[in-house]
Design a protein that fits this description.
The structure is a single chain. This protein is of the alpha/beta class. It has an 8-stranded parallel sheet. Strands 1-14 form a two-stranded antiparallel ribbon. It starts with a helix and ends in an 8-residue tail after the last strand.
Length: about 400
Amino acid sequence: MSANLSSRVINIADLREMARRRLPPVVFDYLDGGADGELTLRGNCRAFEEVTFRPRQAIAVGECSLKTSVLNFNLAFPAMLAPVGYSRMMHPRGEVAAAGAAGAAGTGYILSTISGHRLEDVRAASTGPVWYQLYLVGGREVAEAALDRAKMAGFSALVVTIDTPVAGMRERDSRNGMKQLLGSSALAKIPYLHHFLAHPSWLAGFLLDGGVPPLANIVVPNKGPMPLMDVGAALAKAVVTWEDLRWLRESWKGPIVVKGVMIGDDARRAVDEGAVAVVVSNHGGRQLDGVAPSLRALPEIVAAVGSQAEVLMDGGIRRGGDIVKAVCLGARAVLIGRAYAYGLAAAGQPGVTRALEILRDDVERTLRLLGCPSVSALNPSYIEVPRNWNVS
């Protein structure tokens, strides 16, 4: 299938279209959509269009090195797979397939708390670094049990997401009946069932996989894995505060990464509380709508903590040139979410593999066209940023 994908899939937009055709609207729009009017969702992509390249010409670039390191883990190119919740709804192998593709490509994978496969199985699927992303769903006792399992399984870093005091208002989910479809009332589901029947390939895989999976890594004492439908309410009771970072330093002895930072003050506070890296992220435009694009916020965070911690970013990355622009602005690497999730939804692990191939090849081509010999040699002189971004 991967060879077939190589001939049919030229860019990430092709994978998105394949995913749109395969998935029922409720699942595709969960993956594709953002909060409220989706201003930030669109802005994340548009920000990359505003940054232009300044190439060096008449330079023969011989061997071109794409390698970088993040938290002392060597990566084949400067992109890791971001945590994407509900991945098993997109494809039955979900997180296991994504982790396997990441390892084979020489990069890392971050497992969401909101996952359908056991974290032990996900860790075993990858030959690369795997990190665990934490929501405090179920409280500290449940989180501590998951962290103990993650340590034993060999997860190498903890990613703490701080931008979800409540779930954003995702209007597409409301229109598609997400709440009703995940609820217990069979009657409430009836108006939406035709969407599933119109996608027989996805439906067959979903039913053979046992239907809606429980959340295998949120194990509530005396109750077992949390049902998928309980997550929205649980997130509202699971706000992560700076005090939680202090507790986590005691519970997790490995590196801690804070995800969801958009201003310099929060980046400095994260470092003060023990984070060794921060992720500049607006949650892919899925939380507070109207916040700045991640790329535009990146320089402020680099200026605030770039000498003390590694800075990563996510949001809006669809091409290798986007990755290069983020690195030029100070990111050590980027996290890609939708770009690989479209591939997962379209074709499982071969789809993720194809997404990573596209982005890696894009990065190398961009470096050669810039006249730059390596990712490590990238700097702000290779790009031009709009004056109103106020980049120092």
